[in-house]
Amino acid sequence: MASRANQRILLACALLCAAALPCADSSRLSAAESQPQPSAAAKFPVASAARLAGDAKQTRFILDLDRTVTFRAVTLADPYRVVVDVPQVNFQLPSGTGAGGRGLVKAFRYGLVMPGGSRIVFDLTGPARIANSYVLEAANGQPARLVLELEEVDRAAFVQSIAPELRPTLGAAPPATVPAAAAPEPIQQKPTATADGRPVVVIDPGHGGIDNGTQSSGESEKNLVLAFALALRERLDKTGKYRVVMTRDDDTFIALNDRVKVARTLNAALFVSIHADALPRAEGDAQGATIYTLSDKASDAEAERLADAENRADAIAGVNLAEEPTDVADILIDLAQRETRTFSNRFARLLMGEMKTTVRMHKHPLKSAGFRVLKAPDVPSVLVEIGYVSNKGDLQHLVSEGWRSRAVGSMGQAIDAFLAKRLATAGAGN
């Protein structure tokens, strides 16, 4: 077991390979969406109504509040979005608010993204700039209001309106540095366990909170994968063999790096991320489950597309995804990842063997790509796309408790076999 000093060094190494969420002091961020906050939230400003007005040239957003608030608004590209940060707000908006759009806004979402901070994210129909933004005091029987006025522009003007650090071609963060005296010791690859001897398994339901993931026929990826992950946790808990930890167990927004951090902080023996993809109509139809492992080079175009999409999950909440570790960090991380990737690939093959007996698999069930949630250098990790919400047959399975039970059973068997062998091998090596 690593010493406390070594653990601090390992954490520093982890920070080198994952860009942190700005201002995120908590490893668990929560999202309110349209649900009222608990009674303790009465001290926070209350948002009671929100509406859009205007057309495809100029669009206005108005948020009614019981008091004035400070705010910060920025535009982001690829996809086009406007992000408004405000202090924590108790959103008491009517159900369905934001689902429809108008003018330059396709839709908008809102929620708590960190303690003390809420966020509103606007999906735009195309490039637009913030022509005006202000807060009105309550007056003449009217509530306080936050007003955002958007104006259509071309892409060149849009990019120039973005803060320099957020522009598509200028988004890279300054490289981190590692003092020579603080060079980390080799990362231990032996699977670690809790105080009672049980290994830690981290289950990561993708998306959550203001990030719905893919959607089809009224079903959201975030809800489908959460239901699957909860069922998997129950299956693993019943064995009593593991300490099972979920990155989220409710409708909560969790930044990608915080998901990785959970696994590293707990010295997890295995990290399993659960997703459900959707294929763009222009790319035809696809079906079945797919298992992904980490690779610098995607195994095919579809894997690359999916990794790009998943790696932008934080952008749903306006997070800058810049990530550029130093050459020194790359070398240290690579040394650890070589063995970790071997274990990840081994588990992926084992999982495919179990799942194909009970679950319809993709025609190419094993793939690889540069998923950020798989980049813990010392935790074997896989990302499982349990099906395509864009495929009618897969969607019927994803909402079926019977199918979920069978799929969870096969996944549980693979986890049992993988960890039993790893722990036995580690014990023999002591």
Concise overview:
With 430 residues, the chain is of the alpha/beta class.
Q: Descriptors for this entry?
A:
about 425 residues; alpha/beta; Immunoglobulin-like; Aminopeptidase; 2 domains; 6-stranded mixed sheet; 5-stranded mixed sheet; 8 helices; elongated
Strand content: 25-35%
How many domain regions? Answer: 2
Based on DSSP secondary structure assignment, what is the total number of beta strands? 17
As for the CATH topology of the largest domain, it is Aminopeptidase
- Strand pairing plus helix content: what structural class? alpha/beta
Main beta-sheet strand count, sense and barrel state: 6 strands, mixed
Q: What is the H/E order?
A: HEEEEEEEEEHEEEHEHEEHHEEHH
Shape: elongated
Distance between the termini: 12 Å
**What is the class of the largest domain in the CATH system?**
Alpha Beta
C-alpha Rg (nearest Å): 23 Å
CATH superfamily of the largest domain: Zn-dependent exopeptidases
Note the total helix count: 8
Arithmetic mean of pLDDT: 78
Low-confidence stretches: 1-39, 169-190, 320-333
Helix residue percentage: 25-40%
Strand line-up in the sheet with most strands: 13-10-14-17-15-16
Query: Per CATH, which architecture of the largest domain?
Result: 3-Layer(aba) Sandwich
